[in-house]
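call fold(seq) -> tokens
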Amino acid sequence: MNIVILGMGPSMADYKGGGDLLLGVNDVWKFHQVDHLVVQNSPGQFQAGRAYWIRRSSPLILWSSVQGWEGHPAHRVLPLISPRGTTDFQDLDRFAYSVFSPFTCLDMAVKFGASRIWVFGVDLVGHPVLGEESKLKKCLVHLENFLDVCPVPVVWAPSSPLASRLSSRLEPWPDEGPPPR
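ret:
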């Protein structure tokens, strides 16, 4: 199964459709209607207008471990693995987390049975929360550690700055892109 992860970064523009299951973060719904939405910030932490799109979304499941989304009709509590930045691929009931939601989507994709994971819009540039150098470094360490043990091939949108940073840990980008839905 080809699972697509959609973040809100500039390389999301590379996504032209496809994939068997779509996992997205935060207000990605205003661009793509994903099957599962992961939201790890409370409504008040979003800049004006972003929480509106999350409230308005209608994914199969809206996953969150923070308060504020309980009233969403698709809300489900997101059970997390501790400590932050680690995973256990055998624990199918809990998910990994870091300081950015796409990390959780990567773990979900493996546990949902992905045969290949496609990543778009996860660029870590111009991020409203991850502007701090220490948080950015933590994200990169968590990503690199995850990819080192990930049992599933991961391909990253080639226009993303992370694609070159993580290239030794990624599968090369196939010419055809994700298969149609």
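The chain has four helices and seven strands.
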